[in-house]
Amino acid sequence: MPQSMQRNRAVNWVFKRASNMINSICNIPNALMPPPFRVMQIGSLFWQSRCLYTAVRLNIADHINGEVVPVEKLANDCNADKEHLYRLMRMLCAMGIFKEVKARHFSHNRNSEVLRSDASNSVRSMVLMHNSPEFSKPWFNGFEDHIKDGSVPFEGVYDQEMFDYMNDHQSVSTLFSDAMDTVDNLTGLQYLQDFDWSRFDRIIDLGGAKGSKSASVLSSYKHMTAMVVDRNNVEGTAREYWKNSLSDSVEERLDFFPADIINDRLPVANSDKDIYLCTAVFHLLNDSKAKRLLNNIYSAMQGQNATLAIVDAVLPEKGADLNLAAMDMQMLMGTRGRERTLSEWNQLFGDSPFYLVETVSVRTFAKLMVLKKRKG
């Protein structure tokens, strides 16, 4: 039996137990609140998201900075109506975002700090994307009809697949890329250290956006190189993003390859020590496209016994937690993809030229699945 590629078993055990505890805590309102009040609360949660989105659009977190700010000054800085802004701030404080230190004077609390543009754990890009007109309309325009007929809400609004739409709208593509960077920043890419990269010489990072994951691995494994493969308009912004922000050692080992990973030719494997990495890619694809991607990767491997690593969620067969179920609804809204259960992953792999070697636990919502080419 080949040696496991799992690292940091103990910290992964702790991470899993902590995640289970957090999920249990998040479920407390369902257990304690009377059902009519809980259901009404859920039914009006979009009020909260719209208030939060407005706060980010007005840059309230940056205007407050580290001070206690009277609403009059805040309104002037935000170019907003004083009384309307006060009522918005009162609502945000009631939601647990910002703090009313004294009447009509506001400061940060631990939740509002992550809305600052200069915060290392800022989530403003994710809030802006999820609540933007482009990504909100599919939830509100005919969502019920799409549930009935099995079509994609995003495509129903824009008559295009989501990534084709982003190819034609650079601002939306940038909004999406910035939000995806938020995910990387929040995890700190720690989970990448739970996999043994030392066995490989080169990462071919498919759908790797700006290459944050590859850059993180290269900073720890000095012998490796990486080729990041993504759409044309992503590749151009990625080079600009990293300019003067990477060490020379990492920058000279990180390269980019513009391509549609499903339909275009992929970088060819040079040796058995190449690893093709797909992080949060397959959940965007239905089974038909997922199989095309698997076949495209297989073709790129040619005669080499390279490895494929898929980092994606593995849902339980029943009883998914709210985070995983919500991620699946995001896929339903915008794509023809889905979050898959283990049996659904196995069915997908069973119809492909790859077989599952190992599932590695990593400190994020996902698992890292290691695949090799079938013989013969």
Per-chain topology:
Layout: H1 9-26, H2 28-32, H3 35-43, H4 45-57, H5 60-64, E1 69-70, H6 71-78, H7 82-95, E2 99-102, E3 105-107, H8 124-131, H9 133-140, H10 143-149, H11 153-158, H12 162-168, H13 170-187, E4 202-206, H14 212-220, E5 225-230, H15 232-242, H16 248-251, E6 254-258, E7 274-279, H17 287-301, E8 307-312, E9 314-315, H18 322-334, E10 340-341, H19 342-350, E11 354-361, E12 367-373
Parallel strand pairs: 4-5, 4-7, 5-6, 7-8, 9-10
Antiparallel strand pairs: 1-3, 2-3, 8-12, 11-12
What does this structure look like?
The two termini are 20 Å apart. The model has no long low-confidence stretch (mean pLDDT 92). Helices cover 50% and strands 15% of the residues. It has helices spanning 9-26, 28-32, 35-43, 45-57, 60-64, 71-78, 82-95, 124-131, 133-140, 143-149, 153-158, 162-168, 170-187, 212-220, 232-242, 248-251, 287-301, 322-334, 342-350; strands at 69-70, 99-102, 105-107, 202-206, 225-230, 254-258, 274-279, 307-312, 314-315, 340-341, 354-361, 367-373. It folds into three domains: 11-115, Winged helix-like DNA-binding domain superfamily/Winged helix DNA-binding domain (Arc Repressor Mutant, subunit A, Orthogonal Bundle); 132-168, no CATH class; 176-373, Vaccinia Virus protein VP39 (Rossmann fold, 3-Layer(aba) Sandwich), CATH 3.40.50. Strands 6-5-4-7-8-12-11 form a seven-stranded mixed sheet, with helices on both faces. The protein is α/β, with parallel strands linked by helices and 376 residues long. It contains 19 helices and twelve strands. Helix 4 crosses helix 7. It is globular, with a radius of gyration of 22 Å.
